[in-house]
TrEMBL record:
This is Ribose-5-phosphate isomerase A. Belongs to the ribose 5-phosphate isomerase family. PANTHER family: RIBOSE-5-PHOSPHATE ISOMERASE. GO terms for molecular function: ribose-5-phosphate isomerase activity. Keywords: Isomerase. It comes from Vagococcus coleopterorum. Pathway: Carbohydrate degradation; pentose phosphate pathway; D-ribose 5-phosphate from D-ribulose 5-phosphate (non-oxidative stage): step 1/1.
Amino acid sequence: MNLKQMVGIEAAKHVTDGMIVGLGTGSTAYYMVEELGRRVKEEQLDIIGVTTSNATEQQARALNIPLKSVDEVSHVDLTIDGADEISSNFQGIKGGGAALLFEKIVASNSNKNIWIVDESKLVENLGAFPLPVEVIPYGSQQLLNLFEENELQPKLRLIDGESIKTDSGNYIIDLHLESIDDSALKPLSSWLNALPGVVEHGLFLDIVDTVIVGREKGPETIGAIRRG
Ligand SMILES: O=C[C@H](O)[C@H](O)[C@H](O)COP(=O)(O)O
């Protein structure tokens, strides 16, 4: 069993009958969704899933997990998702798979958030992983210019030479920051949020409650972290 599968299965143990569960996106969350699908089928686990991307929706539908949209539920009990980097203060970067917008909406409406990662994702300070910023196409060149002027080393994310489109039809600009001190995260988040054309960014601050880390010797659960 690989480390992503290990934490996916471990996290699924936190899901019990009657829960409304946010289903994350990515290669680690994939295993958690597979495990929930298995439990729905074999153990008649009674849950409602709220997906965070078209890809996860497709996967969950194929597994016959009952689904509702985030707008059809009163709340989400628990969301389980992957992450790209987690700092020693449990702040995170997400969006390597371009799903950050729906992920942040579902996470912000969840009573509890669990992130599942292999141990390579734990860092002292965030920033080695490029920070994704979701922007609407209109005016995106102006945002690229602004980020360039601010020495954030922006790169428009491409696939086959074309701008990638998120599930909402937006572009992703990746910022290469190298290392961001935790004290600079909130000012950076506020600055990005205030820019016209920016829809959302991949800094997930004070959101996670528990992290399940995949280590060679087995899964390790750390947290819980109080929300700020
Ligand atoms: O947009 C994608 C999500 O934020 C993913 O949860 C994140 O990129 C981690 O993905 P993976 O588990 O594939 O490394």
